[in-house]
C-alpha cells in the first residue's frame, strides 16, 4: 500500500501543477480558469492513485484479475467531455476554446503522472505547457498575422444591393481575393469574401457606407 504521506504529497503537487496552468487561463478570463484546472488535475491524480493501489485488497484472490491502467485510461477519454464544453463556435469559420480544451487534456495527463509518482515528468510538462500557452503566444500572433486571411461577410435584404456590394469589392485596388460566396436564404443575401491582401483604407470606407445603409443588415470584418 502507498503511505498516507505520499498520498498527500501527490495530491498537493497535482493541485499545484493544475493551479500554475489555471492561472495562465484565468489571466485571459476564460471560463475554465484556476479552480477548473486544479480540480481536473487533482481528480486525475486521485484516479491514478485509485487505479494503482485501490484494488490491493482483492488482488491475488482466485478468479480476480485486474488491469491497473483501466481507471487511468478512462480519465483521458472522459476529459474530452469537459474539453468539448470549452469550445465555442462564434460564427462561420471562427472557433475559440481549442487551446483551453487541449490544456485541460494536458492537465489531466499531468494529474495522472503526479498520481503515479512521476514528479519530474509532471513538473517538466507543467513548465513546457506554460511556455507554450504564455511565452510562445506573442510569437504565434506575430507569425500567424502574416499568413492569416482576412474575411468579410455582408448580409442584405435587397438583391440589387447584393450585386452592388459584389461589384464594389471586385473594383477595389490591389485586392487579392481567395474565396467568394453568395448565398441566398428566404429573405436575405449573404455575401462572403476572403482576402490574402487588400487595401484597408478603401475597404474601411466601404464598410462605413454599408453600415449607414438601411438595406444592409450586418457587416462582419475580421
Structure write-up:
With 222 residues, this protein is α+β, with helices and mostly antiparallel strands. Helices cover 59% and strands 17% of the residues. The chain starts with a helix and ends with a strand. Strands 4-5-3-6 form a four-stranded antiparallel sheet, covered by helices on one side. Strands 1-2 form a two-stranded antiparallel sheet. The chain has helices at 4-27, 34-53, 70-85, 98-115, 119-135, 137-147, 159-170, 200-211, and strands at 88-91, 94-96, 150-156, 176-184, 189-197, 216-221. The protein is built from eight helices and six strands; from the N terminus they run αααββαααβαββαβ. α2 (34-53) runs antiparallel to α3 (70-85), α2 (34-53) packs parallel to α4 and α3 (70-85) packs antiparallel against α4 (98-115). It folds into two domains: 4-143, no CATH class; 149-221, ACT domain (Alpha-Beta Plaits), CATH 3.30.70. It is found in: Cell membrane. It is a multi-pass membrane protein. Belongs to the MgtC/SapB family. One of its GO terms (cellular component) is plasma membrane. InterPro entries: MgtC/SapB/SrpB/YhiD_fam, MgtC_SapB_SrpB_YhiD_N.
Write the layout of secondary structure elements.
Elements: H1 4-27, H2 34-53, H3 70-85, E1 88-91, E2 94-96, H4 98-115, H5 119-135, H6 137-147, E3 150-156, H7 159-170, E4 176-184, E5 189-197, H8 200-211, E6 216-221
Antiparallel strand pairs: 1-2, 3-5, 3-6, 4-5
Helix pairs in contact: 1-2, 1-4, 1-5, 2-3, 2-4, 3-4, 4-5
Organism: Ilyomonas limi
Family: Belongs to the MgtC/SapB family.
Keywords: Cell membrane, Membrane, Transmembrane, Transmembrane helix
